[in-house]
Amino acid sequence: MQASRNNSYGFTLIELVFVIIIVAILSIVALPKLINLDRDAHIAQLNSIAASISAQNQLTYSKSAIAHIEHLEGCSYACGNHPNWDIRQGEYFIDASATRLYVSMGYPLPPLTSSATVNNNYRTVFGLPSTEFDFTSVTRHLSATAIVPIKWSEKLNDIKNGIFECHVEYSSPTSIRNYSVKVFTKDC
């Protein structure tokens, strides 16, 4: 007589339930950390853009000072024969990244101020392609220009009205205030 052997392969039901519970607990603990990593990545991207704009602004001001246009604002089409005056745009410019970067009081004009050329040249010099970033005006912050990652393009009206904040704002200087670069991350 031969004894029957019970050769079983695999896991018991209790082992499977135990593994599922452990995996569920780990996912509950890990998911918020992963979500925070995404938020941190967005904030880091915005901080990087702001730092790049500030660095380029300092370089732009230096080039404007060399060209003696650091205190000049755009004027009518009769600004004389200054070599850094673009009669077609009605603005002063400096050469940056083989592109005309239009300036006022030594700092870059923000995109959305006067023409598509100013907008496109700003994008080129600052490395903000239209496939990755949108611009909108923020009226509650003295008509600053918001630089918005394309991910948030459906929120442009909310950004414009101050409801949604996950962007960089740039304001060029005027006779009463300096330029500013601010990062808004409340809703990232």
Largest sheet: number of strands, sense, barrel closure: 4 strands, antiparallel
Global outline: elongated
Strand order of the largest sheet: 1-2-3-4
Please provide the ordered H/E string of secondary-structure elements.
HEEEEHEEHEE
Q: Structural class given helices, strands, pairing?
A: alpha+beta
Low-confidence stretches: none
Alpha-carbon distance between the termini?
74 Å
Q: Radius of gyration in whole Å, from Cα?
A: 27 Å
Q: Please give the share of residues in helix.
A: 25-40%
How much strand?
Answer: 15-25%
Number of helices: 3
From the structure provided, what is the oligomeric state, counting identical versus distinct chains? single chain
Mean pLDDT: 86
Count of strand segments = 8
